[in-house]
Amino acid sequence: MEKGVFVTGSNTGVGKTVIAAAIAASIKAHGLSVGVMKPVASGAKESCGKLISEDAVYLKKIIDSTDDDAIVNPILLKPPIAPTIAASQSGVSINIDKIWRAYEALSNKHDFVVVEGVGGLMVPIDDTHFVADLAHKMDLALIIVSGDYLGTINHTLLTVEYARNRNLRIKGIVINMLKNSDDFVREIEKYSSVPILGTIPFKENVSVEDCVYGDIVEDFRREINVSTIMRKET
Ligand SMILES: Nc1ncnc2c1ncn2[C@@H]1O[C@H](COP(=O)(O)OP(=O)(O)OP(=O)(O)O)[C@@H](O)[C@H]1O
Ligand SMILES: [Mg+2]
């Protein structure tokens, strides 16, 4: 069995957090102990005088995680921009070792860890690491979340190409927020040769910002066989 999965996206805002939450809940429903992780978050919000990552809150709440925020989200930056710029504007440097230590703690504690990346695979984390390096070091296969927007074919195929270039394993692609025609989905499958694990429609009652899940877990489980995500191919 895999020890976790790394959820990346064709772009920022495509639904990585929503899909990662649905994966975590579906795997927990299999009876496994699940951890969630957002290694780096920018755009921290203030709640009761404390800085929080909305993504980490959303991921934790769906599985009732009691893990320490310091290991779920070891790097939290306030400016809502790329991590390296956010760090420089905040006058801090990103300590990548904190990420490795936090992942190790979660991995030792749980059967399965769902990690959400930041933006896409080539978002820089520090001078020498991109998001792809996090997945590589954690030795986790990717789920690529793609959205229904003009440019998604290009972004998704570029993501697949780069993942292959970095020898990252790809479990498959999840198309999120499908609105009308799914013609573009067939194009992505044809040119990438990566399985489309399923498509999730746009749902009015889903919101990371308001921490509401609607029927996302039911939709996900109807559409996607979570065993494919858990099973390690030999
Ligand atoms: N299937 C869906 N139906 C309706 N709204 C959705 C769906 N999936 C995601 N959203 C909404 O779209 C927005 C972006 O989703 P999400 O935050 O999961 O993206 P992300 O890829 O994690 O973004 P980021 O790069 O900021 O981490 C959020 O407001 C979320 O509530
Ligand atoms: Mg997110």
UniProtKB/TrEMBL annotation:
GO terms for molecular function: ATP binding; dethiobiotin synthase activity; magnesium ion binding; protein homodimerization activity. Its EC number is 6.3.3.3. It catalyses: (7R,8S)-8-amino-7-(carboxyamino)nonanoate + ATP = (4R,5S)-dethiobiotin + ADP + phosphate + H(+); (7R,8S)-7,8-diammoniononanoate + CO2 + ATP = (4R,5S)-dethiobiotin + ADP + phosphate + 3 H(+). Pathway: Cofactor biosynthesis; biotin biosynthesis; biotin from 7,8-diaminononanoate: step 1/2. Pfam families: AAA_26. Mg(2+) binds at T17, D55, E116. This is ATP-dependent dethiobiotin synthetase BioD. It comes from the Bacteria. One of its GO terms (biological process) is biotin biosynthetic process. Catalyzes a mechanistically unusual reaction, the ATP-dependent insertion of CO2 between the N7 and N8 nitrogen atoms of 7,8-diaminopelargonic acid (DAPA, also called 7,8-diammoniononanoate) to form a ureido ring. InterPro entries: DTB_synth_BioD, P-loop_NTPase. Homodimer. Its cofactor is Mg(2+). The active site is at K38. The keyword Magnesium applies. Keywords: ATP-binding, Biotin biosynthesis, Cytoplasm, Ligase, Magnesium, Metal-binding, Nucleotide-binding. The keyword ATP-binding applies. It is found in: Cytoplasm. Substrate binds at S42. ATP binds at G13, V14, G15, K16, T17, V18, D55, E116, G117, V118, G119, N176, M177. NCBIfam families: bioD.
